[in-house]
Amino acid sequence: MKTLESAPPEAPPNRAAAAGGKSRGGPGSARRQRARTGWAYTGPTLFVVGAVTIFPILFSVVLSFTSVRMTYDGFRIESFTTGNYAALLQSAEWREALLFTVFYTVVTVFAELVLGTLAALILERLGAGRGWIMALLLVPWSLITVVSAQLWGYIYDASYGLATWFFDAVLGHAPVILGTPSSAVGGMMIADIWKTTPFVAIIVLSGLVMLDRDVFEAAEIDGLGAWSTFWRVTLPQLRPVIGIAVLFRILQAFGIFDLPFVLTQGGPGTATQSLAILGYKTLFQNLNMGPGAAIATSTALLVLVCCLLFLRAFRSQVSEGELR
């Protein structure tokens, strides 16, 4: 007689399945909940940033395409036009300000890059005392630009300035540094280079301390000298860091305002008048709202195009270096 085998015990019911599959979206629901919480915390900050940054930019762009009439109550937009940009392209003063801004940016950024790299190479080889030297090096950079410009104004003063005393002692006569176009441009560049070279040095130093030491040991074994090692080993590895430093400096130098405003007010004549100074005078002194907004918008577009071109060229160079 066959014996009946006992049936296996039934598996316990799947509570997740009985719940209608609600647990399937558990991780996704948690992520969505975290995202909503993040937006809830950052939403007010983003709103404030948009109100004080994005809205004025968009309003300036719209204003650059308008014909504005000043009234006792403020201003009134009469019509929309592209005449502001047409007048801008035909303005000799705008072209002079553009040439000065480009020349100033190229010279100061190049000088700061060279001097900052040299300072970083020296600091990288120092042992004890590097922290103190870095702290002293950051003093010019930590100063507010207006304070720094006022300090250099005292140095360049034609009556009691330190530079006046030096030239008088060495040359026998003291030129008025801020009184002629060439010396005013040179003096302003020296003040800018003195202030911002430490910034470039610290960025390059941060890249130097992160380089792979094995590569330098291999270069030393291959018999490369110090100069060849710098050009063939150190500099190619520093390209990303140098690119960041140059990008930041282009953005700052192209929009230079406070240094010439305090030192020269754009003078003598228009020798040190940057695009930012020209826009300020047009917008706030002459109360030409449309042309002033057009100057500001064109300056922002030029900076954006220059940065995009630089990033594209820099990216291609980095890609070629990686392929090699």
TrEMBL record:
PROSITE patterns listed in its UniProt record: ABC_TM1
Superkingdom classification of source: Bacteria
Residue stretches making up the ABC transmembrane type-1 domain: 98-312
Main location: membrane
Subcellular locations according to the entry: Cell membrane
Transmembrane segments: 39-65, 97-123, 135-156, 162-181, 293-314
Disordered, as annotated region: 1-34
Membrane-topology annotation of the record: Multi-pass membrane protein
Keyword Cell membrane set for record: yes
Alphabetical list of Pfam families matching this protein: BPD_transp_1
Database matches in SUPFAM superfamilies: MetI-like
Keywords of the record: Cell membrane, Membrane, Transmembrane, Transmembrane helix, Transport
Similarity section: Belongs to the binding-protein-dependent transport system permease family.
Protein name as catalogued: Sugar ABC transporter permease
